[in-house]
Amino acid sequence: MKATDVARRHTTPLTNPAYAPVVPRFTDREYLNVVYRTDFDALRAVVPEPLEIDEPLVRFEVMRMGDVSGYGPYTEAGQAIPVRLGDERGEYLHAMHLDNFPATASGREVSAYPKTVGAPRLYVDHGALVGTLDYGTLRVATATMGYKHHPLDPAEAREQIAVPTFMLKIVPGYDGRPRVAELVRTRITDVTVKEAWTGPARLQLFEHVLAPLADLPVREVVSASHVLTDLTLAPVTPVHDYLEAS
Prior knowledge:
The protein has one domain (21-245): Acetoacetate decarboxylase-like. Strands 1, 2, 3, 4, 5, 9, 10, 11, 12, 14 and 15 form an eleven-stranded mixed sheet that branches. The chain has a four-stranded antiparallel sheet with strand order 6-7-8-13, with no helix packed on it. The longest helix has 9 residues, at 101-109. A hairpin with a 5-residue loop joins strand 10 (165-172) and strand 11. 13% of the residues lie in helices and 52% in strands. With 246 residues, it is mainly beta. This is Acetoacetate decarboxylase. It comes from Amycolatopsis tucumanensis.
């Protein structure tokens, strides 16, 4: 293979790419969102500067992807933290666990999503919408919400899931020091809200050393939503370079 051909490849393994070279379109992406209050000090320990925290809130989410171009169906769960960068409010993606390797690899390599392994589920059980996350054989999180109790304004649902998103992109160099260390920003685009509901909810987080969601403990459930959408993920844009700032 010629050197010029190598430079045109976008992923490894060289002759068997880990993911398709597509901009994924999500059809029937279903969310269970539970916003809860946690400890301010716990948030300060994980949210990187220059992001700022106004309220000690976390959004636990379970997302069932009905169909995704390039990846197929899969499920994902994690935590997003409301933050502010200057005058712009958004969310910092703190943790994402999913059951699809191509989506994990592309999220980490092409973008900066903090994706790792996990076994999330989203289903209905005796009148409750249930979202769970297991790591290996152990339960990490269980969320329950009353199934379609009250309609939610589609504009409010869209605002919940389409806020600016901030993430850390860290790529180590061969000497062990960071080669890339950036804060990046993205946003969900082309959103169509098909259904949106709210209702009572509960959330339990369980201690696990490799999935430390419980390090942001649940003190009070603030709100919950159940949303069905179609959407597209936009490319990321760097907003802060930690190597230049150091």
